Here is the input.
Amino acid sequence: MKNLIDKLQKQRALSKEEFVLLLGNITEEASEYLFDIARATAQKYFGNRIYVRGLIEFTNYCKNDCYYCGIRRSNHKVERYRLSREDILACCSQGYKLGFRTFVLQGGEDLKYTDDDICGIIADIKKNYPDCAVTLSIGEKSYESYLKYHEAGADRYLLRHETASPQHYARLHPKGLSALERQQCLYNLKQIGYQVGAGFMVGSPYQTVEDIAEDLLFLKRLEPHMVGIGPFIPHKETPFADFPAGSLELTLFLIGIIRLMLPNALIPATTALGTIHPKGREMGILAGANVVMPNLSPVNVRKKYELYDNKICTGEEAAECKMCLQNRINSIGYQIVVDRGDFCPVEINV
Ligand code: SAM
Here is the structure.
């Protein structure tokens, strides 16, 4: 396995068969070997700096019905909410004072917000905080809509591809949603000039090692600026309520692999990772991640944006979340930086 990891580091890619072999033979020794190299690679580009993104979950209405997601349309037990432009700006104001220089607007696919609404919100944030980056994560839209948001000032877009395999995709989503259309959205976003984030859930129902190998090959082809992966975690009010959560070991191993494939990518240690293990986010950083995304949403709506059961950080104020993460990051020898944390094509000298 060490040979394969060395080859991955050198060539920044493996064949599908090699990925399958590597993923099918994860041992503690192989993981430690991979994490050492992945950490050193991240350090080469980012030193011990960890970027923060303030996450604003501004709507939990969604027109989609993804089988895994707690805010899917058919979950009638969720109390739905929407934040107004003023609410969102208040989150940014608080975040700015706390040192955030990226705001991520995430939500379900909520048709109540028109393109003009979204563009207005982006323009207001950019007007008030010109030194900040705006990231959108609002799902699949037309090329024209993506273009409008970009022209209004949006810098980045997060859209996990969820799974690169069309067959697997069809087992996670109802008819009408397609893997290829989602992938096309990512290519459109890239073409328009966004910094783009793709990614997938680890251990989603019916996922095979071959599917994961396909995910890695897709990431290699797309070359996104950001890659968000986190374990699947069941939500009790979804069709996948009885499936087990994805594995911590496999998620960490994949973070390490992705760091070697895309050495300067922005890779978050996700909230889902912190949910399946109390030190999951620290472990994610030690496996090669370099971004954290504390929650800036108002506390009274946090519990309502429950994508999966037992999601952490739903009861704390933004300042507490930031402090908690800062302490966690300092405890492993890293530092949070006040910086937009843009994709950087070159190594830094540290
Ligand atoms: N609507 C936007 C979209 O489609 O990209 C953004 C919101 S969506 C809820 C954000 C991400 O949450 C999804 O891309 C999915 O990977 C993740 N997610 C949803 N349900 C999950 C679950 N049960 N466990 C882990 N992650 C989940």
